Amino acid sequence: MGWLSSIKKAIKKVVRAVKSIVRVVVKIVIGVVMRIINTLGAWIPVDKKMRLQVFILRNEAGNAVDQIADVEMAFSRAVATFKRRFGVNIKAYGKPMVQVLKGAAPVAALDVPCDGGAWLEEFGEAGEYFADNLAGWNAIPISLTFPVSVFIVRTVDGKIGCSIPIADYVVLSPAGVDSDTTLAHELAHTCLLMHRDDSKNLLYPSIPRGTDVTGWQRFVVRTSRHCTFW
User: Fold this and answer.
1) Residue 230 is assigned to a structural domain of this protein
2) How far apart are CA 134 and CA 151, in angstroms?
3) Among 149, 160, 99, 159, which Cα is nearest to 127's?
4) How far is CA 98 from CA 46, 53, 123, 196, in A?
5) How many structural domains does the chain have?
6) Long-range contacts of 216-221, Cβ-Cβ distance < 8 Å, separation of 24 or more
7) How far, in Å, CA of 137 to CA of 51, rounded?
8) 63: containing domain
9) Could you give the residue ranges of the DSSP H alpha helices within 53-180?
10) Residues pairing with 52 in the sheet
11) What is the pLDDT of residues 71-121, one digit of tens each?
12) Is the pLDDT of residue 205 over 90?
């Protein structure tokens, strides 16, 4: 049974990698198409909308890693920042907006890496878990609002929040939830904004940071597929 188990594990890894590659390709293609479409209306002086769904993970004992009330407060801070800085109204995708996922999450999803490690995990167990629990769509789009999922995890290695541009989700630790700007910062990353060396800017890599944005940053966010007129 040893060799058979090894073969099954190998096949599972290959399938997981293929599914991840398909997700990445689909997201890139749709992202480019939507950005071209959105560019046409980026400067229209009308607020756009971003849909958000928050999922709190459970640890090995089945306990939620953070409190719903704390997450709702972080949500309200991000709403205020996006409205003021980008002209984007953040709306709840589903009801309730904050949900605790059923069952214990795998350790790989509870304690996640960032930067290069996050890219690797997109093709691993954590990436598969997040993809299976995304709001709105998985391998192919099933919602033209392209919602962003926020996963509240136990730890983010060396950070309190993380996101990668191709993903439709961000991860926050409880410390990230408590931060005034981290959720808005990570959501801006999903819209393809990169870090800036200005402590007053929302995309400054460390806290404390301000919430200022440039005109270019506002344009980039408003052309994201996550920000729509509908």
Assistant:
1) no
2) 9
3) 149
4) 27, 7, 26, 30
5) 1
6) 217/188, 217/193, 218/85, 218/86, 218/87, 219/42, 219/43, 220/191, 220/192, 220/193, 221/82, 221/86, 221/88, 221/188, 221/191, 221/193
7) 12
8) 2-222
9) 68-86, 107-110, 116-121, 125-132, 174-178
10) 92, 148
11) 999 999 999 999 999 999 999 998 899 999 999 999 999 999 998 888 888
12) yes
Residues 171, 190: contact at Cβ < 8 Å?
no
- Phi and psi, residue 189, nearest 5°: -60, -40
Q: How far apart are CA 94 and CA 52, in angstroms?
A: 8
131 alpha-carbon distance from chain centroid? 11
Contact 83, 47 (CB under 8 A): yes
Exposed e or buried b per residue across 36-54, where buried means at least 16 C-beta atoms within 10 angstroms of its C-beta: eebeeebeeeeebebbbbb
Q: What single-letter amino acid sits at 128?
A: E
Q: What angle do CA 185, 149, 77 make, to 5 degrees?
A: 40
Q: With respect to residue 6, please indicate whether it lies within any of the assigned structural domains.
A: yes
Q: How far apart, in whole angstroms, are the C-alpha atoms of residue 203 and residue 182? A: 9
Cα distance between residue 49 and residue 51, in whole Å: 7
CA distance 5 to 28: 35
Is 174 domain-assigned? yes
pTM of the model: 0.84
Residue 39 lies in a domain: yes
Torsional sign, CA 112, 94, 74, 218 = positive
